[in-house]
Design goal:
The complex is a heterodimer. By secondary structure, chain A is an all-alpha fold. Chain A is built from 18 helices and 2 strands. Helix content of chain B is about 75%, strand content about 0%. In chain B, a hairpin with a 6-residue loop joins β2 and β3. Chain B is built from 16 helices and 3 strands. The chains are: A mainly alpha, B mainly alpha.
Chain lengths: ~450, ~500
């Protein structure tokens, strides 16, 4: 019977994992494929503009680079924006998530390895253990086992080690087969998997295993508490629903209720309006005073425009930063409240956060990407201003030509190429340390409880 | 006879822990889901209204027509669907904001999950989630030992030893256990709805919404019946209860997870769709030669102007005399005036030409975007065709989403149509204003009087969604499918039970 359980678990996991990995890889390759063209097209886009001002207005298009481990854990990546416009007009923002663009993906969510562990294998873990003690008692075999000269604690340890090793295999074996299949089907897979990525994957797998240990131990514990295996079954199912669904949603709801904040869209609309008014005033001032006439006479119009633009961009940045700071503060407090509550109370939460951090498919990497993108935006804007500033007007008659009509803009490739620096391994590991610790504590608690409970178990 | 069995079964069931726990769980979860849905909905609705108000305010006082309005465009915001309270659907991931502009195609962006990423971590906590995951597991728990459990306990033989026919017994068990399952589902549902209406008076549920809610509940009940009858069927096929549950769990995982996943994968491989950035870049890449051509045209114009300039520029007088100096100054002043006027004229002409050019660019982009959308549609249709028939969960998802108007066809598409319509109206209004006052289009626009365009701005709630007739006819096949599957499973269960070994 037990072997039937394990074989079916192994079969289910393998059958679901394979399409999941292949789909993930396909998705990853499509998204990265576009990346290579990006640099060239951005350069082309900029240099074909008639003037530096227009070039600044149109700007660049950046799409987010996916991380290879998204094959194993999709996280919330597909709901987070992927495209950003970098220009002198609007503040950069990552939008157009995969699911927004392809709504069918929103309707039927991707299954990934994390889902398999979080839902399928945890259910199996409980299924394997719920009758480990109470079932044997019912069948009468328990007293037989314990009537031998085998000390109780050895029986428990034997059960736990044996059972858990088998459970681990139902995760590790299909994963290895999956990895082999990937290596053979996609030659670039190994190229993308850096040492960093392998280490992260290793930590992810250990997180999965500790998570399974939690449910495994919980199963043994509840099994040794209940007289009838039917009761332990239902109790475990309830525990599962509590951990997997109720607590996460409750912590989220609590955070939303206690620490609400206006969404970024509202703030951006307000910022948009404020900046719009700014632009309008800019043009009015430009024509009315600001030393426009004198600048033309002194062949200094480009430099004047560069100055004005610089000042305007600074002011625009100030406005945006003001809203941004307020928003970040509120968002951060809500997120940290919710995640702290969730991870403290539910191993499922802790696992999700840990794995998303490691696989780069959570909020952390998005945030890092956005902040680096904004840094790049500052640099790009400075570059445009600098280019305008360096326009030389030799002749009074040529001033408008110099400003508004360029045959071909000489764009510095390096200045307009954005390279994302992935977070270092140390940072990522330290961030998920809390979650790993929580998982370990849960596992240890249930394990100890199961141990103690079994030692005092009434076998009659 | 059957009634007696039913009553007996119900009494027996009420004493088991599973009923108590199911009731407890659903009494907590269902109202929680509905109320949190209400919270989310009112939050999203007030946000849409707020953003629309800010945007409309901006439109009452447009200072720089050309830059501010023509180029930046105008944003419209989508009001969430009321029934997203019950069935979140794809609302969390769909675009809440549309952009109408002269120089760009309508753009759609800003999804709820992107703005509040924490919401995405555990997905929609709505009634659909509870039914699809929690209720279906409970349905399996109720059903799996209906026959095989009794056999294990040895009571099955006793029951059949009396003058009880197998059919009657099975009917009794089916009805009793299904009732036991439905009551802890329907009662909290009603309580939740009452609480919703009481605590959120702002939520406007009209007659149509209540009909939809009833139909959604019907879909849920049919789905639960389907899963339950499958559970009973498997119970009549296996000897040991635990074996039943194992098999059912596997089937559950396949139907809920693997089938949709495989359907999406297969469709992506058979009918791939280019990503949005791919389309954008292709558009811009195709557009860039046109841009250069336009640049050359502009260049030619200015060259002609330069030539004319050189021709008209007054020559400096050879001898310096007061008369000639004054004449020179006058000539220069005239020349500068001509120059200024000519530049303004060319500037305005160029601005209008640019508008024409920009609309060309938009049209070209539209081709690519349309092509992409068509491909996406075909892919969606394939996925749905597979999912709606290969798994009851697919049929339920589709039906519930469509009835709640939070699905693919009834939600996203309609919003896009609405924004495109507004975009057209917006362009027409722009055209009219420029024709009345051509200086608005050029650089002079910065000094013109403020324009008030707020009259054409639509309210978020005015974006119409699919009508009841369309929704109902769309989901009839799914409801029929679920009912047919249930009947099929029950039929097979009866057949199987006839030959069941009760020893």
């Amino acid at each position: 019977m037990t072997s039937a359980k394990f074989i079916s678990a192994f079969a289910v996991v393998s059958l679901i994992l394979m399409p999941s990995l292949f789909f993930g890889m396909n998705d990853f390759l499509v998204k990265t494929g576009d990346q290579t063209l990006q640099g060239e097209l951005n350069l082309e886009l900029l240099s074909s503009q008639p003037s530096w001002m227009v070039a600044g207005r149109h700007g660049l298009i950046e799409s987010k680079k996916p991380f290879i481990l998204s094959i194993f854990d999709r996280g919330i990546d597909n709901s987070l924006g992927r495209l950003a416009q970098i220009n002198t007009e609007v503040d950069a923002r990552l939008d157009k998530s995969t699911k927004l663009v392809a709504p069918i993906r929103a309707m039927f969510s991707d299954i990934d390895l994390t889902f398999i562990v979080r839902v399928i294998l945890s259910l199996f873990a409980m299924l394997m253990t719920f009758d480990a003690v109470s079932g044997e008692k019912e069948q009468g075999t328990l007293s037989l086992v314990l009537s031998n000269a085998v000390p109780r604690h050895k029986v428990v340890l034997g059960k736990i080690l044996g059972g858990f090793s088998a459970l681990s295999l139902t995760l590790v074996l299909p994963l290895m087969i999956g990895l082999l299949a990937l290596v053979f089907s996609y030659p670039t897979f190994l190229v993308h998997m850096s040492t960093d990525a392998w280490i992260r994957l290793g930590v992810m797998v250990s997180a999965y295993l500790v998570f399974l240990l939690v449910f495994f131990s919980a199963g043994l514990f509840v099994s040794s508490l209940c007289r009838h295996s039917a009761t332990s079954f239902v109790a475990l199912l309830t525990l599962w629903v509590l951990f997997a669904a109720i607590i996460p949603q409750l912590s989220l709801a609590a955070a939303e209720r206690l620490l609400p904040y206006e969404s970024y869209n509202v703030l951006q609309t307000r910022a948009f309006k404020e900046i719009g008014e700014l632009h309008a005033l800019r043009l009015q001032r430009f024509y009315e005073n600001q030393g426009y006439g004198r600048a033309i006479r002194e062949n200094r119009l480009p430099q004047l425009i560069a100055d004005i633009m610089d000042a305007e961009l600074d002011l625009q940045q100030e406005i945006t930063d003001k809203y941004e700071r307020q928003f970040r503060r509120q968002q951060d407090s809500q997120i940290s409240f919710s995640t702290t509550l969730g991870r403290a109370l539910s191993p499922t939460c802790a696992l999700s956060f840990a794995v998303q951090s490691l696989a780069g498919t959570g909020w952390d990497r998005q945030r890092e990407y956005l902040s680096q993108l904004r840094e790049f935006q500052k640099a790009f804007r400075s570059y445009i201003v600098g280019a305008i500033e360096s326009i030389r007007v030799d002749n009074y008659w040529d001033v408008f030509d110099a400003l508004y009509r360029n045959k071909e803009l000489d764009v510095d490739r390096r200045a307009v190429t954005f390279e994302f620096r992935e977070e270092s391994l140390a940072v990522v590991l330290s961030r998920c340390a809390w979650d790993m610790a929580t998982l370990a504590i849960f596992a240890a608690l249930f394990f100890a409880a199961a141990f103690v409970s079994f030692l005092r178990y009434d076998v009659r | 006879m059957i009634t007696e069995i039913i009553v007996k079964e119900i009494r027996a069931g009420l004493r088991t822990p599973k009923v108590g726990i199911t009731y407890l769980a659903l009494v907590v979860l269902i109202p929680m889901a509905i109320l949190s849905g209400g919270l989310r909905y009112t939050g999203a609705a007030s946000e849409a209204a707020l953003q629309a108000a800010v945007e409309r305010d901006r439109l009452t006082n447009v200072i720089n027509f050309s830059e501010d309005l023509l180029e930046r465009g105008v944003h419209t915001f989508r009001h969430p669907s009321v029934l997203s309270i019950l069935v979140g659907g794809i609302e969390g991931d769909s675009a809440q904001r549309g952009l109408a502009s002269n120089t760009m195609n309508p753009e759609f962006d800003v999804s709820r999950f992107n703005s509040v990423p924490l919401l995405a971590v555990f997905g929609n906590f709505d009634l659909e989630f509870i039914v699809k995951i929690v209720l279906s597991i409970f349905a399996l728990v109720y059903a799996f030992d209906v026959v095989s459990g009794e056999r294990e306990r040895g009571t099955l033989r006793q029951m059949l030893a009396s003058a009880l026919s197998r059919n009657d017994l099975l009917i009794g068990k089916l009805v009793a256990n299904f009732l036991l399952l439905m009551i802890p589902f329907l009662a909290p549902l009603i309580v939740g709805l009452v609480l919703l209406v009481t605590l959120y008076p702002a939520v406007a549920l009209g007659g149509e919404e209540w009909i939809r809610t009833a139909l959604i509940t019907l879909a849920f009940v049919l789905y639960a019946a389907c899963v339950f009858s499958l559970g009973v069927l498997v119970s009549t096929l296996t000897g040991r209860a635990i074996m039943s549950f194992l098999i059912l769990l596997m089937v559950w995982v396949f139907l809920l997870g693997m089938v949709p996943q495989t359907a999406v994968l297969v469709s992506e491989l058979l009918l791939p769709v280019p990503t949005i950035d791919n389309v954008k870049r292709r558009h811009l890449a195709e557009f860039s030669p046109a841009q250069r051509a336009f640049g050359r045209k502009v260049e030619a114009l200015w060259q002609r102007f330069h030539a004319e300039e050189l021709r008209r520029r007054p020559a400096e007088p050879v001898e310096r005399s007061p008369g000639s100096a004054a004449a020179y100054e006058r000539a220069t002043a005239e020349f500068e005036e001509w120059r200024y006027d000519e530049r303004m004229r060319i500037g305005a002409t160029m601005a209008l030409e640019y508008q024409a050019f920009a609309s060309e660019m938009r049209k070209a982009g539209q081709e690519l975007v349309r092509d992409r959308e068509l491909r996406q549609d075909r892919q969606n249709e394939l996925v749905l065709a597979i999912c709606r028939f290969a798994t009851p969960a697919g049929a339920l998802t589709f039906a519930a989403n469509r009835l709640a108007r939070t699905g693919i066809f009834s939600s996203d598409k309609v919003f896009r149509k609405n924004v495109e319509e507004f975009s057209r109206k917006f362009s027409q209004e722009n055209q009219r204003l420029i024709e009345e006052n051509p200086s608005l289009a050029g650089m002079e626009g910065a000094r013109a009087d403020p324009v008030d365009m707020s009259s054409i701005y639509p309210e978020p709630v005015s974006f119409a969604r699919e009508g009841l007739d369309e929704s109902v006819s769309g989901v009839l096949q799914d409801l029929a499918y679920l009912a047919a599957l249930t009947v099929f499973f029950i039929g097979c269960a009866f057949l199987s039970f006839q030959r069941y070994d009760v020893r």
